[in-house]
Amino acid sequence: LQQTFLCSCEGFREDRGLTLENRKREPKNETRCGCKAKFRVHVDIVSMRWYVTLLEIDHNHDLLGGTLCGLLPAHRKMSQGDIDEIGRNRKAGIRPYQVYGSMANTSGGFHKVGFVKKDLYNQVGKQKKLLYSDACGAVKYLQELCTKDPLMFVAHSIDKERKLERLFWCDGESRMNYEIFGDVLAFDATYRKNKYNCPFVVFSGVNHHNQTIVFATGIVTRETEETYVWLLEQLLIAMKGKHPLSVITDGDTAIKNAIKRIFPKAHHRLCAWHLLRNVSSNIGIPDVMSHIKRCMLGDMEVGQFEMLWHEMVEKFDLHDNNWIKEICLTYFRFREIEADFQSNYGQPVLQTSLRGIERSAAKQFTKEIFILFRSVLKKAMLLRVIECQEMSTGYILKVVKYCGVGRVWHVTYCEDPLDLRCSCLRMESLGLPCDHIVAVLLYLDIDDLPSCLVLPRWSKYAKDQIREKYGNGSLYWDSQPAARYSGIFQMCKVVAELVHDDLDEFNNVIDMLGDG
């Protein structure tokens, strides 16, 4: 009798379906790389003990560490006890996400549950969370959270009648995220999803997986400049004085004035979604929408933008439209464990003939950003450099489409220090190299994606420095009482698994607990 245990990266994936051009879904990461690590055990018939007969400990790939190991399929397991607990909660009307959150709370963290939320949803389905609370209850609840999360920040103010006027809060992980990704801040005060119709303010951003993350939230009773100044002041206090480089809003005057006072050096941008939504209400011409979209979302240089905008204004006679004037002025001044697992476990399937630069990007970018970059890489294959002019500080290269007719982009290239910039300014606005820059890299035979084209906020290692600063897990609610409770709860689950099928053992455990 024997048993062989293999590494999850052993062998290779079949090529079936990977090369299809019209795939609707992105192929899963290629995790199998022919790893030879394994061990084999036999059982001794006489002693009935297992002994090792083969051991290969060398892996040909980087090993996952920390909390990521538990996300491997082979490590995820939903026991019968877990399934029973989910069933009992569902019968009581508790929703799936609440069940998962409760299990994470009692287990000591989501990474200790033993399975991911998707596994639970595969059992019971998906619904949204609703949470209601009045003002006093909300303040009390947030203050209780401060005792569990040492980095939690809560602030509130009351009016002359001693009623709650403003409430602001953010937890430790949000503060950590802002420290890394707080260069761009979205300030949205358009939510009123509560019975008091008070604006619910959300400060959000985007992480290195291109996912929306919340930095802080607030509730206010008045939408005044002073109210928003107070919120931004609390944000600055909570985030240790760090100012964002750009702030995105819906264009509200009170918010705009507050930003000027608190973040005087930040670039104020208008939210594209709000701009497009207001087109029909401010301009009663149906065909204008497509032209506005083309100007706002199109890939063009400043000169072409001015020309198209002027053509639109002339065509629809919008010279005296105040909204258009304001938009033009403002716009012309210019526009986290499962995702880590997906980015760090395995490598994306390479899909272009430019394997060197594609592989280099896959090693540096998170999976979501890499997928965006790969589309840029494919577009770059349709471009070519037609001229390279030497300057005192470097080179200027002209890039065109292969047909050679139409637009020309200018890419500047400096060798020391290495730097590439394009006239389309896409790298400056999106933080991702454009296809024109990539075309120049191919022209220069550069296979490794230069570090100057990889913003730290988009890399797999964006959070490494902050983890070293705070330590793994220190931002989660792991106070000593909670940790002790979680430890006991986990042991009780193990005992329940062992004795629930044996009546004698069950009675013995009950007797021991009763005697205690």
TrEMBL record:
Residue ranges annotated for the SWIM-type domain, each copy included: 409-445
Alphabetical keyword list: Metal-binding, Zinc, Zinc-finger
Molecular-function annotations in GO: zinc ion binding
InterPro entries: FAR1_DNA_bnd_dom, MULE_transposase_dom, Znf_PMZ, Znf_SWIM
Top-level taxon in the UniProt lineage: Eukaryota
Record has Metal-binding as a keyword: yes
Keyword S-adenosyl-L-methionine applies: no
Protein name per UniProt: Protein FAR1-RELATED SEQUENCE 5-like
Organism of origin: Trifolium medium
